[in-house]
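Continued from yesterday's entry.
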Amino acid sequence: MSKHIIAIGGGGFGRKLSSSSIEKYILSISNIDCPRICFLPTATGDNDSYIVRFYSVFTHLKCIPTHIELFKRTIDISDHIMNQDVVFVGGGNTKSMLAVWSDWGMSEILKKAYNKGVIMSGVSAGAICWFTSGITDSWDKQLRILPCLDFIKGTCCPHYDEEPSRIPFVNKVITEKEVNSCISIEGGAALHFIDGNPYKNVSFEKNKNSYNMFLENNEIIKCPYPGLQL
């Protein structure tokens, strides 16, 4: 059974109620008529309005949406996640999310579900969490490289074209060889992985892409991933 991760660079229901094209794409990967999808809004401290936006989109799509809160009375996490077809991780503070997840044993639960074939997806914090490391602004006023779950080998940077500090920071850490390469995902784009390998870029806003960035002959190379426009 193939294992899928869809990492979104920015946008979707968390920012505005749009065409829901990326949300529909994620559900379609399950090949199930009415897939079960669970939202994890941990990175915002289970923000109520974020949860409402999730349901305002997914209740209008052919699926069974649920969510898990870790800051109120919490359901049986393992049992619930293992019975899902899709998990969607919201954006927010990645460092805080991973710290809370660690206490709940969430990474082990998600890894077990992923290996079972549950589709993993998410935006921003919910995109970088799947990688060995991610570029985040979770604390202080500067970007940092944060160790993450390591489901996918490598480093990921979301919001690549949306925040002015992202491009120079990626260039810096590659040039200084802090990382060998960086998968950089623009807002309005998602990178779909199958079995840990990049499969295709999925653009849900016009001309948005994902790139593999690396150093070659002391020059930064920016290779776009092929894909489709929704």
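--- second protein ---
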Amino acid sequence: MSYEALPDGELAAVVTYLEMRSPPDHTVPPSPLSLQRIEVPQPEHYRELFRLIGAPWLWFSRLTIDDAHLAAIIQHPRVELDSVIDESGREVGMLELDFREPHECELSFIGLVPELSGKGHGRWLLAEAVRRAWREGVERVHVHTCSLDHPAALAAYRRAGFTPFKRAVERFPDPRLLGILPKDCAPQIPLLGTPA
């Protein structure tokens, strides 16, 4: 076993890649939540939703690209973006499916606000995502998660029928120190270093 020291201001995560080669034999559980398609996603609204869902887990990748590049991804005709809506009409989650690769669907981003955690809503959202991903012509559905994500994420993907097939170590500057995310988000991940 060996350890590799990280400089202050840098983070590392173990990324696990998972895939599904055939649709699972699962039903979608009931939920008071619903999905609402965002037909022409705008970068500013997308970033708000992305932060709302992802800041507790240090999601930052889509926050660092310019409007034109982000719009080219999220407005692509083979990318589908839905808001998760609660009973009061509030956005409480997101689902992004990417069909740009022929015969494949990537669950690019999927998540709910932290206050919905542990109430079964994630099981509904993931089952609904898998149901929507498997459509005519799709032969593989895939997703990846990392060790900085929600502690139940990997188990949830496996329970939904995904099989791990590869791991990688990802290193990156802490987005809180770069000013991309607030310094107080993701308190479960120690903040080491000083802001840029």
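The chain has one domain: 16-173. The longest strand covers residues 10-20. Will compare against the first tomorrow.
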